[in-house]
Design a protein that fits this description.
375 residues; alpha+beta; Alpha-Beta Plaits; eight-stranded mixed beta sheet; 18% strand
Amino acid sequence: MSKEFDYTAIAQRFSARFPALTYIITQINFWIIANILLGIILQLQSLSLSQTFEFPGLISFTTVLVITILLGILYGISLGSIDYYFDKNIFRKKPLGKVLLLKTIISLGILILLFLFIRFILFDFVNSTLHYKPGFTLHDKSWKYLFYLVLIYYFFMSLVINFINQVNKKYGPGVLIPLLLGKYRNPREEERIFMFMDLKSSTSLAEELGHLKYSSFIRDCFMDINHVLLPFNAQVYQYVGDEIVLTWKLSDGLKDLSCIRFFFACENYFRDRNLYYTKNYGFLPLFKAGLHLGQVTAVEIGEIKRDIAYHGDTLNTTARIQSACNEYNKKFLVSEIVLEKLGLVNNLSAEPLGPIQLRGKTTKIGIASVDWIEK
């Protein structure tokens, strides 16, 4: 098991347990790095001018470093807290471009407040404590030009960091860094759990709602399913029309029966949103699902549009199990391989359907209809 893979699992568990703290720590890390880079640029510029005009350096790099780190922490806490609140309550249905712009404007507003704090409180305190240069001060015009410099720098860094955060959301917590490090450049074998969730009666629903309203309905369903992902360590692999494909690392999916409980947690979430769905669409969404596990190969594919793809018979079998829901009039079918891995569980009710011949398969596979009984 590679270290990168462990990092992914740890990051996903941490995000599930501490979602708000994850936002804050992410922003703090980004802005400390960005501020240190800015501090180094300013310090090198100061040293260059001091050598050119033959005057001594006016401020120590220690002072610059302390101020940049403190600013990164304060800025990160402010932005992380605001991002978490806005993403959960306001930005859910906003287009990416508008989200980036609004977050950038909010970031600049916070920057102005922090800049005033640095100018009138923090700078003199830090510089008098760490290697203060006698007689050194910054005039109003100096602060004015420094603010313009920081404003321009922060504007572009806000766009870059917000864009990175949006890309990180595409792949899920803990995946972007291993991807950048080339973890999936060559095919690698993994044992994973897959779930295919498909909307029931999708054709008749599309005819009843019309294409535009049906698309809004699917969007809302998938957004609500996304709210259930992190507590159960689930990752979205693909959206295919009105179907969503989810995956788990084997240990994460089996732990506390997360791969089973996830499906019923989605049903509960939809029931909690009953008023919204009945008011806007006239009915609650109902999904059917198939669950299976096995060996797959993971590899980074594409050049113009890159993604991580999983290949193998496990996915084909999972899709076939899900398609058998209609034949048996069941909402959730699970392979016996998964049930064997899970063992006996009091809350889990399983109805064996026996070995069946799945379409496209030469060998039979045992499946069971499962239900979760709350006690």
